[in-house]
Every structure is written in structure tokens, then in C-alpha cells.
Write a structure and sequence with these properties.
Elements (H helix, E strand, L loop, with lengths): L11 H14 L30 H10 L5 H4 L2 H18 L8 E3 L1 E3 L6 E3 L4 H17 L16 H14 L4 E7 L9 H12 L2 H8 L3 E4 L6 E3 L12 H11 L17 E2 L2 E2 L2 E3 L3 H18 L12 E5 L14
Parallel strand pairs: 1-5
Antiparallel strand pairs: 2-3, 4-8, 4-9, 4-10, 5-6, 7-8
Amino acid sequence: SYQTRVDAAMSNEKVLEKLDEIERTFFNPDPNFLVDFEAWKKVTPPPKVFKMEYSVDVVRDVIREMKKVNNFYSKSFDQLARPTGLLLKMVFLNQFYPKNFRESTCQFIGVPPKDRAIFPMDFVPKMVEVVVKKAFDVIKVEDGTFQMAYTPKRGCVATNAKTLQEVELSEEQVVQTQQDLVKAFNYVPRDVVCVEAEKKFGAGKLFESWFDGQTFVYKTGGLDERRGQGSNRGVMAGRIMGVEGFMLFIATCTGLTGKNLELLWASLYADDTGPVCKLRNVVKLQEAFHWVESWCERMGVKFHLSGDKKPVYLAYLKKGQEFPPEFGQL
């Protein structure tokens, strides 16, 4: 396996505890929490909607370029291209994600207590989602959020380098706050994803079917568990459409993205928000936090407010600059 698996180091009892915990995060027990899959149907799709490619030549190239797939598939691209192309055509024309592809495999990676669950895909659903993403990429435009994660030629190092560059060019004191969402992928509101997918790609119907009846299984060490049947929120980390759905959702938190023009720089990396602000705009940054608080309430999500991941701030001071008391009041 290309990942560091920790399953063998855990007893079955510990694994079952973790599966219970994961399952709970995908379910909001609040009786007032409703998933409105009718909302996306009221949205006007963009003039140019996504179009999946399913010609034999295109599919052959996609299979050949796919990474982290079994050699049986990667070396059989010629034989697989035609039947896979027919499947992709059916998915696109019906805007329907096949039910037997909605089940993910759960794996634990990393070193306890920092281990985490991912949901890798088998070849066929991965192939479908790769082609869906390619179709999205064709009509994607820079949306002004300046998201640095899951974006070609961007990354964590580039994010931090850009932050330091903006600090260096600033003529006044600069503050940066850092805050992290709780279980960001698992808490994503599914109806919001469908609305945003319809708004940007015309893909609301496809995402609704992708969410419908989504489950995950764990089959290791004699266990054969199928979970998530009652889930009403979240996207699966490790699934390509899960990442796309998460990106659509997090972009709605405009107060902490590049769309907040009062920020010097958003420093947005997935759900790790790190807005950078000049001294003169600290009040505006505080106003953004108040807006984000109401956004969290609407979306059914929350930020870590205590523990190792509680919010922190960094004050950037150059030689001769005083620490502004305004920074300490955020």
C-alpha cells in the first residue's frame, strides 16, 4: 500500500470505536437540521455547463494517466476504453451516479493519535470521478477566493511564502489569525454542495445522486462493517468528487477568502483559514469574524475554539514598530 496503514496496530474493539465515531460525525442529530435537496433545482445554471468526455480515445488516455491504480487496469487501457466510455456516457446523459459506486472503503492511515480515516476508491468509480473533475476544470475560473489547496501549482509552501511577501511589502504592522474547522469534510452540508455545483457547473443533479445512500465499508482483521446508512452531511475524504464538493462549500465562507477585500491576503488552505490584515483594517477583520460566526450557524459547522487547534494570531512587527493593542483585542 502507498499509505502507512495503522489498522494492524489496533484491536478490533478500537477499530469499532473509531468507526462509531466516524459514523457520528456524518450525522447531525438536531431535529431542526434539514437537508434540502430541492434547493439546487431553483438555481439558474451557468451559460456553459460541464460536459463529460466519453470518446474511446479520451477515455484511453485518462486510464493510461491515472495514478495509484492496480496494474491490471493501468496496463489494460485499450480493452477498458470502450466499455468505460459507455458507462461514462450513461452517467453524463442521465446525470446519475450509479448506486454501487457510492460505497467507499474506509482505511486508517498515520500514527496514533494523529491517525485519520480516508475513503479510497476502486478503479471504476475513480475513473468516473476523474472524468467529472476534468469536465469541471474545463469551465472553472479563478473565483476570487484564492484557495491554495487542491489547486495546480499551488501548495502549503506557496501559501506561506505569499504571506511573508505581503508582510514584507506592508508599510504598517500586520496581524494574521489562524483557525481550523472541526471535522471539515465530515460536516459539509450536502444541499449547499448541490446548490453551488448547479450554480457553477450545472451539476446539482449529479451531486444529489452521488450523496444518495452513500456508505462506507471496513473489511480488515476479520471485521466486515458497513456504515453511514443514516448519514445526512459530509463528503468522503479521499474521493475526488468529495474534494470538489468541499471546495464548493468552503468558498461560501467569503469573509475569510480573497473575496473579503479588506484583507491583505486570505492565506486560505483548504479549511485552514489564515487571514492576513493590516493594522488599519483590524476592525473590519473583527466584523468578518462576526459574519463567519453566523455563517457557521447557517451551515451547521464550527471552528475549534479550544485545545491544540484553538485559534491563534501572529503579529508581524518590523524593526522599530510597536505592538498595537488592537491586535490583542481580536
